[in-house]
Sequence to fold (535 residues):
Amino acid sequence: MMRWMFLILLVNSSLWLPAKIQAAGPIGTWQLLVNSAGIASMHTAVTRFNTVVMLDRTNIGPSQIKLPNGRCRVNPLDQVLKTDCTAHSVMLSLSNNGIRPLFIQTDTWCSSGQFLADGTLLQTGGNLDGALKIRRIAPCVSTGTCDWVEDPNTGLADPRWYATDQLLPDGRVIVVGGRGVFTYEFVPKAAGEGTFALPFLAATNDAQNDNYYPYVHLIPNGNLYIFANRDSIELNYITRTVVRNFPTIPGEPRNYPSAGSSVLLPLDGPSGYQTAEVMVCGGAQAGAFRNPTAQFPTSLTCGRMVITAAAPAWAMSNMPMRRCMGDMIILPSGEVLIINGAGRGSQGFGFASAPVLNPVLYNPGLLTFSVLQATTIPRVYHSTANLLPDGRVLVAGSNTHLFYTFTGAFPTELRVEAFSPPYLDNSFNARRPQITNVPAIVRHGQTFTVVFTVPGQLTALEMNLLSAPFATHSFAQGQRFLRLKLAAAVRVGGTSYSVAVTAPPNGNIAPPAYYMLFPVTQGIPGNAAWIRITN
Fold:
């Protein structure tokens, strides 16, 4: 099969112009995993037990999956169904694609989340009765009984609807922004601590509020890069000061309700993790959300910026196709997958059309885009994408309606798919490494041994550490890729090798958490091993 690739040529300091070229090779495959998860997953996170927590919202009426054992949620504050015997969160088992209902009490609509150092999934905010709530689930194996627990005594200081969470080096989580909320706060808090003003969020607010779900990335010096609308800053959250303002990205607004997506490109261990570069792709035309009947074409552009450079500047390129609501997922190969979304309109209930069915693969080193195999299922507003430990990408959700609606254009989507990127093609199996032994727990800066096999010749070995983010609204909160420093691999017999690997030096590079360690040779990954990085 053939795929289109777009070679990006740097013609000046701020613009890349694409020249289309043709190249042969695999273009990926799709697999339907679950015909009905019972809910449309608005928020999705992959756990270290190879299960997936999927979460929608309350105040929506009944879902399509019942709570077990006759259990019902009784909530006088619910706007639609005071007694609800259906689930609005589920756990998916990756081993057998089974679905188990989970219980949530308050509204998680457009909320945020992050895995903590011990593997607990923290979930914050939402709408109405959920806006100040803090929830946790301690994940378990697929046969377990773990479930959501709401903190009865401690809540958020400000209501957080459309906020962003980021795990910090000390294990706390910072919660940034929200609808009409220009502050940040921490979970947990120090005694007497409240919220802290962030005027940048007020400054990036506009007539249609294009600063919801700000893009937040932890950078190597321990500060935060925060992007909202079209502008961005570097925030020292310890001293509560903005230490740097970055240039405005050309083009359209980039955050909800005009959302594109963003990633922090791979941090490189062999070079000391010194260079940090962000990439932002897609968005909607200014005013598209306020004029949904116009169905304006969405953004065509991506921007890259080295935020650690002395004089940062956006380098712009054109994607192969226009896209809003695309999810950007860093793959274990170091490439960036752009998946889901629409070619017209914006985020919002019924505000988009022209679904973009083809994922796009971006190679940061070659500056190329590849158009991959299309799905048959539109994934627009309220859809998600998450990397799995076997290198596939889980795709779920899509609900452009206020309530579950299964007729008309873009019906509420309960199906769950997996996309296999080109590197999973069987033609690469002779190059595919597999880890056979690795420590379960590794300290910052520790040198540890990984034993692995490669069927063919060992060439271009990498050990890449990837976080498990919380995906919602086209942004994977806490997403992180670390290319670890290696010694020369040593053959220990047959196709088996041993390599000494150096863990990231501190929490600025790798906040303490569970990560997926992927072995990669010649750009072809094997299955990940879960390891815990500790201080």
About this structure: Confidence is low (pLDDT under 50) at residues 1-13. The CA atoms of residues 57 and 109 lie 5 Å apart. The longest strand covers residues 2-10.
